[in-house]
Design goal:
The protein is built from ten helices and no strands. It has 250 residues and is an all-alpha fold. It is a multi-pass membrane protein.
Length: 250
């Protein structure tokens, strides 16, 4: 009973945070491999299944709000598809203990980047470089982030969204594109990790997780404009940093 309550609560809360801010999905692998004691492969399979749901639902709501550049998102995601496949293959080679370390290091660096990054409004000018204008750079960024995310379980938005802002994309559009992109990272990653698991044992857990994750994402993405995103992101960043330091110190 405790196991199922943690699965449902974690997916509901993390889904809401993903919908609100575009980040926090990287906390799911920590829950699965930490309190729930699951293996890295099972945890990543469940997490990437959730990222597909959150990416699809979240990007629909961001698109309705006019905060999703679909052509740019497609170009970025083409690179991410190839990168995600590579990430899964690398996970097969690298020992599980090393993958856990990579996961927590990515979480630590992501938390620090969120904490230090200053959001810029989409209207701010003076940008000398906007990545959406450069196809090659967009594909390369998608490939690299797709590989890192699928290998570590970091999701997608937590890495992609800050990078897009730095590279000239407005904050809300960056969240929408990052959520859209996470679908294309999640599909090959989820399939790859599911092939290494007992699908029969994992499906009931996945079904419960996806229902509650979806509810959280819908709520979060519909209420994103009502929340002080800067304050919420800072809270997530501090929590992520503390969790990562604790797990790395064990």
């Amino acid at each position: 009973m405790v196991f199922w309550m943690i699965v449902m609560a974690a997916n509901l809360v993390v889904g809401a945070f993903v919908g609100l801010t575009g980040v926090a999905g990287f906390l799911l692998p920590i829950v699965y491999t930490g309190p729930l004691g699951m293996g890295v492969t099972e945890g990543l399979a469940l997490s990437f299944a959730a990222f597909i749901v959150s990416g699809a639902l979240g990007s629909v709501n961001y698109n309705k709000a006019g905060n999703l550049d679909i052509p740019f998102g497609i170009r970025l995601s083409l690179g991410s598809l190839a990168g995600a496949v590579l990430g899964v293959k690398l996970n097969l080679i690298i020992p599980e203990s090393t993958v856990k370390v990579i996961l927590y290091v990515v979480v630590l660096l992501s938390g620090i980047s969120i904490l230090l990054r200053k959001d810029k409004s989409q209207e701010e000018g003076g940008r000398a470089y906007v990545i959406s204008d450069h196809l090659a750079a967009t594909l390369i960024l998608g490939f690299i982030t797709g590989a890192v995310c699928s290998l570590s379980g970091a999701g997608g938005p937590v890495l992609v969204m800050p990078l897009l802002v730095v590279l000239g994309i407005g904050i809300r559009t960056a969240v929408g594109v990052a959520l859209f992109n996470s679908v294309f990272i999640g599909i090959p990653a989820c399939i790859g990790y599911m092939m290494q698991c007992s699908v029969k044992d994992l499906l009931p857990v996945m079904a419960a997780a996806l229902v509650f994750h979806g509810i959280g994402v819908v709520y979060g993405s519909r209420n994103a404009v009502k929340i002080n995103q800067i304050l919420l992101k800072k809270g997530i960043a501090v929590f992520s940093i503390l969790i990562a330091i604790w797990k790395l110190a064990l």
